[in-house]
Amino acid sequence: MRVDLAQVIVSIIQKQIPTGVYHYSNEGNISWYDFACEIYTQGKHLNVIHNDCDIIPCTSSEFPQKAKRPSYSLLDKTKIKTALQIMVPDWKESLKNYLKELR
């Protein structure tokens, strides 16, 4: 079963899984820059984005935040996938589905 975050939240409530910390995100890993590029590419292809623009990469140090963050991190979704017995969709596919809904 492929699900996204809202469906996972509903499943957690309905199935009353044990309390604790559960991590969830779509499968795959990507930088914020690459994510922005993919949004733009898919958005143009699906005719959701109509204007041209430049996406300029930047470093995390150019956007200081109060909370210290690692330069690279991924969420371990093993616990939520096991508890709900789910297959998590790839982020590109979910992005495409979301952009299609915007049309």
UniProtKB/TrEMBL annotation:
Its EC number is 1.1.1.133. It catalyses: dTDP-beta-L-rhamnose + NADP(+) = dTDP-4-dehydro-beta-L-rhamnose + NADPH + H(+). Belongs to the dTDP-4-dehydrorhamnose reductase family. One of its GO terms (biological process) is dTDP-rhamnose biosynthetic process. Catalyzes the reduction of dTDP-6-deoxy-L-lyxo-4-hexulose to yield dTDP-L-rhamnose. This is dTDP-4-dehydrorhamnose reductase. Gene3D superfamilies: NAD(P)-binding Rossmann-like Domain, UDP-galactose 4-epimerase, domain 1. Pathway: Carbohydrate biosynthesis; dTDP-L-rhamnose biosynthesis. InterPro entries: dTDP_dehydrorham_reduct, NAD(P)-bd_dom_sf, RmlD-like-bd. One of its GO terms (molecular function) is dTDP-4-dehydrorhamnose reductase activity.
